[in-house]
Amino acid sequence: MLKVTKAVIPAAGYGTRFLPATKSQPKEMLPIIDKPTIQFIVEEAVKSGITDIIIITSHQKASIENHFDRSLELEMVLEKAKKYEELKLIREISELVNIHYVRQKEQLGLGHAILCAKTFVGNEPFAVLLGDDVVRNDEYPAIKQLIDVFLEKQRSIVGVQKVAKSEVHKYGIVSVATPITLEHPTAKVIDMIEKPKLEEAPSEFAVLGRYVLTPDIFTYLETQQAGLGNEIQLTDSIRRLAKDTEVYAYQFIGKRYDVGSKIGYLEATIDYALSRKDLREDFISLIKQRIK
Ligand code: UTP
Questions:
Q1: What is the pTM of this model?
Q2: From CA 180, how far away is CA 161, in angstroms rounded?
Q3: Residue 268 domain-assigned (yes or no)
Q4: Ligand 1 neighbourhood includes 108 CB (under 6 angstroms)
């Protein structure tokens, strides 16, 4: 039985929707209150039993690498100032998990970014978590849910949720063999289309940033022609994989935030602020004042 211990986090996109903030730092470093988005993603992977993470970065990799590294100077400053809580916090970040980095030299698309992880992944199934999608489920992390489905099926799994009709044109949409319901959250994938028009969408179930993939995906990615937006699309390769072997869609449970979009980012910030003991009260009174 194959286990899943490795995860790939692609973080090399241009993040054009967040310019100018993303001019000199990856959007994955934008904080939700005080924690960079990518740390939420790394923590989800760690809670799900992942022991090695590879982050696909661009030329702006320094800030991500530094974030997960030790900062001896800062540690000394905090120690001197007797700020022990902060000291613990920043030390813990560097002790979370083994993180490796690979540079995607040209931003040719998500499929190409995943292909950059081939040597690291080797011949093992692996998880993929997109930095754009934060999923909240503290008890049962989304990627752990997918890994559990993988352990049963031993086939590639794409994490899906239903999106509004007005949103299907933004996502990879699946066509499945049986209806996806709460009781039956897993269904065989028949086809997948990247960002279809509503008339062409085979369902309202969108792939939302969580995957467990078998290593045969690399064979498809290596020969993948550029698709929509002239990018090498992961969706197109999974689609071809699904024609040759079984691939499953699984409806994961958890509130998902599209933090790559401005409104999704604001939504995440509001929800996380409301759930923080240290901020909730002040935040509510601030909002009340503002909307008076
Ligand atoms: P997106 O298409 O959402 O990211 O890719 P983007 O292109 O950075 O964002 P916008 O649309 O311009 O604002 C989804 C994920 O794939 C990664 C991104 O970093 C993001 O996590 N990605 C995308 C790469 O790593 N490399 C690429 O060539 C493209």
A1: 0.94
A2: 9
A3: no
A4: yes
